[in-house]
Amino acid sequence: MNPSRLAAGAALGLGLALVPSPASADHFQSSGAPDLVVPLDAFNIAITGISASNASGFVVAPLTVTFSPGQSQSFVGVGIGGQTVTVTTNETIGATTTTDTITIGVPQNLLPPGTTIGGAAVTTLQLDLGRGNAGTNLLDFALPITNLLTSGTILYNLGNFSVTPVAELNGTNTALSAMTGITSLGNGDLSNFGIRSFTLNFTYSNVVPEPATWAFLATSVAVGLAATLRRRRAF
Fold it and tell me: Rounded to two decimals, what is the model's pTM?
């Protein structure tokens, strides 16, 4: 199915509740060698709307984003109604784990009131990163990552709604793709909820150097100290 731009539509439904699309976190056993996202790594991300009849269309067409911690990238006019879509990336390094965060959103509503696809209300929103309709640029890591856990939130007009993205690592655990989504109860109209953004969090273990690496570091420090002492004696 090739998604197309959603069209403005009809009357609003009321009294709906949001439920997350089925999803579960991937868990990987630690082998002691995770690291951070490759600097300025480019990845693809998109948001698709789906109707009760399974017709689909882009809410945010595929974007190529650069992972740059603490920075936001704006894509003018790519949202429905000409809204600017902003993607923010961040990386938080703790004592034992690192969390990479990606937020994609618009100032007002990803689905302006009355947005339809094929004349039917949008009942599901699906975010894809490095997979599906988004494109094939995955989120790349400098070294294999382990103990991966995922979490996320969707910001809408009544607050935040928690989701658990599904993530899949490549064969070497050095790149991931992910998806998450939200579906309305009773196939109701999602354009009523003022959904503004999706946030994805990927948490994994920090690097634990192997014994050989510690030995190399110790030798390097010893050599550096010896060279410093020799230079001091020369003056």
Answer: 0.78
